[in-house]
Design brief:
The protein is α/β, with parallel strands linked by helices. Helix content is about 40%, strand content about 20%. The longest helix has 28 residues, at about 60-85.
């Protein structure tokens, strides 16, 4: 049972797809299949169900959790040695859905700690729990909860979410609108699972309605251009309104008490958090976030 084989197992366990995992690892699919087969033979039990689509079975999930913890401890040890050898400068790895809200605290952090190596990774909330447990990242900033035992969190900012409309739309320049006002409007929005879509669905569900979605995309920034082109409406946090003050879209408030985005910082455990990550955590949690 070698480390490379365990890393390959985790990639397959997360993707539940051999070809995608092979592409991620940059190995040939037959070689990856042989690695998984050898690991299952060594353990004496299958780790995946292979009827139809490849699925991690109950035994595989148990083994995955142990492998994530084991590799996480090894990575923590490697970084502790590297930090000691380099005189304590260390490094920090921060994952986020978007880095636009973090430009201020990150700029201040690098100015105060130029010796610390900072690595940034863009990541969906669904990937963050596993990345934290495997010590692949130290901190995660998410617009949705990363809920799991052993993961700590702190709310760092709550900001208002605005409705964006084309400049010539009938609602452009209007006072705050209700969900009923938007019942028949087309929306261009992110795919299910991302925070904008979750919020849109929740706002409409509170009024026993469903939004009329005409476009789903994995590119939140692309929705701005689509709104400007007149293809529909969308939701954006207050920081986007501040960073894009031009006439491309019109901004309208939504009359709903929960039309906001909550940014939370997550980390796996206090005792495993490197010193550099603790400094970064303080920088983010104590940052004077701009309010609406």
């Amino acid at each position: 049972m070698d480390l490379n084989g365990l890393h390959q197992f985790l990639a397959v366990a997360r993707a539940e797809h051999l070809s995608r995992a092979a592409a991620e690892l940059r190995v040939a699919q037959p070689a990856l299949s042989r690695t998984i087969a050898r690991l299952e033979a060594e353990l004496g039990t299958p780790l995946f169900d292979r009827a139809g689509r490849l699925r991690l079975n109950d035994t595989g999930r148990i083994f995955r959790d142990h492998v994530e913890r084991a590799l996480g401890e090894l990575e923590a040890g490697r970084r502790a040695v590297a930090e000691t050898a380099s005189g304590g400068a260390g490094s920090v790895r921060l994952a986020s859905e978007t880095f636009l809200p973090l430009t201020g605290p990150l700029t201040a952090f690098k100015a105060a700690h130029p010796e610390i190596d900072v690595r940034l990774l863009q990541m969906a909330p669904g990937e963050m729990e596993q990345a934290l447990r495997a010590q692949e990242v130290d901190l995660c900033l998410a617009s949705q909860p990363v809920g799991a035992s052993g993961i700590d969190a702190a709310v760092v900012h709550v900001e208002r979410v605005w409705l964006a409309t084309p400049p010539a739309h009938r609602l452009a320049g209007a006072p705050p609108v209700s969900i009923e006002d938007l019942a028949d409007e087309p929306f261009v929005i992110t795919r299910p699972g991302q925070w904008q879509r979750r919020l849109l669905d929740r706002l409409f569900a509170d009024r026993n309605r469903e939004p009329h979605v005409v476009c789903e995309t994995d590119e939140p920034a692309a929705t701005y251009a689509l709104v400007s082109a007149g293809l529909g409406l969308s939701l954006f946090p207050a920081i986007a309104r501040v960073s894009r003050p031009g006439p491309d879209v019109a901004w309208v408030g939504i009359d709903h008490p929960h039309c906001n985005r909550t940014l939370s910082l997550h980390w796996e455990s206090e005792e495993r958090l490197p010193a550099a990550a603790r400094l970064m955590r303080s920088q983010i949690t104590e940052w004077p976030w701009r309010t609406d």
